[in-house]
Amino acid sequence: MNKKHDALFDDVLKGLDTDPGEVEAERGQTRFLKRSTAMSEQVAGARQEKVMRLVDPATCVMWAGHNRAYDLLTPDNCADLIEGLKAQGQQEFPAIVRRLDGDGAEFEVICGARRHFAVSWLRANNYPQFRYLIEERVLTDEEAFRLADIENRDREDISDYERARDYARAVDAYYGGKQTLMADRLQVSPGFLSRFLQLARLEPEIVAAFPGIRDIKELHARQLRPLMAEAEAHSRVIAAARAIAESGEGLTAAEVVNRLKAAGKPPVRRKALDTYYKHPDGNVRLCKKGAVVALEFQQALSERALRSAVDAYLKDRKAK
């Protein structure tokens, strides 16, 4: 008989030969011991109680340091979550929030913007029974930043550019501009962090050239940044970005990158097809049109200047 069965039989048989008063006293003592043990574990830090509650999402606002652009959330890009909530009948994983003081919203959302949007949308679209599941925490801003980053780092539904902006804000706000310290706290490589900070520094004109910030990838910054090292190339790329944004052509992100890369490359210098023979009396232009060579000059050009040009041409041809 295994332990599960032993426990079952013990539960069924206990008390058959015991006085009812003794049984009740034993139960009371057991409950007291359990409460005492739980309290001791909490004091010692070996036990953490998590309090979760269901609230109206209208009582919550996004934390100012939230890493997701809430205004870009739509029923389309949250469709998977909305359908999942409908299938489950409730929100399975709580959002992490902090309590706010004063009037107005009661909580600010650290993690769970998409869940907030999805529940709000469902309540506004014939599913009023849905409520927002939250877990209240006491966190510093730096702790809130790291928690949100850990939760969203591997998710595809948050864009590279949103994450890059969050990192750029945090490196100054929480780490005194020290990238190495921030990388250590986030447990990422300095190179990984540096690439995202470079993305955050993309010029506004380039950002505006893309269909939206969710389309901008960290790879795009790596591709464009080397082409903009020289001042002239930088100017050409910015001009091309402005033209794309103003044209409203509706280019894809890949098409935008290709145009900007083309603008950043130095223009191909065409080989001069014409040669000028200069003389104090006037110049002679030698034009090549396929296999035909023509000398062009003013009708009044002196014979001396013309002979000089012909001699120079014959000399050049012989040298070739």
Please outline the helices and strands:
Elements: H1 3-13, H2 20-44, E1 52-55, E2 60-62, H3 79-88, E3 95-99, E4 107-111, H4 113-124, E5 132-136, H5 141-152, H6 160-173, H7 179-186, H8 190-200, H9 204-209, H10 218-224, H11 231-247, H12 253-264, E6 275-277, E7 284-289, E8 292-296, H13 303-319
Parallel strand pairs: 2-4, 3-5
Antiparallel strand pairs: 1-5, 3-4, 6-7, 7-8
Description:
By secondary structure, the chain is α/β, with parallel strands linked by helices. Among the domains are: 52-156, Conserved hypothetical protein from pyrococcus furiosus pfu- 392566-001, ParB domain (Alpha-Beta Complex), CATH 3.90.1530; 159-201; 203-264, no CATH class. It has 13 helices and 8 strands. A hairpin with a 6-residue loop joins β6 and β7 (284-289). It is elongated and about 125 Å long. The N and C termini lie far apart (104 Å). It comes from Loktanella fryxellensis.
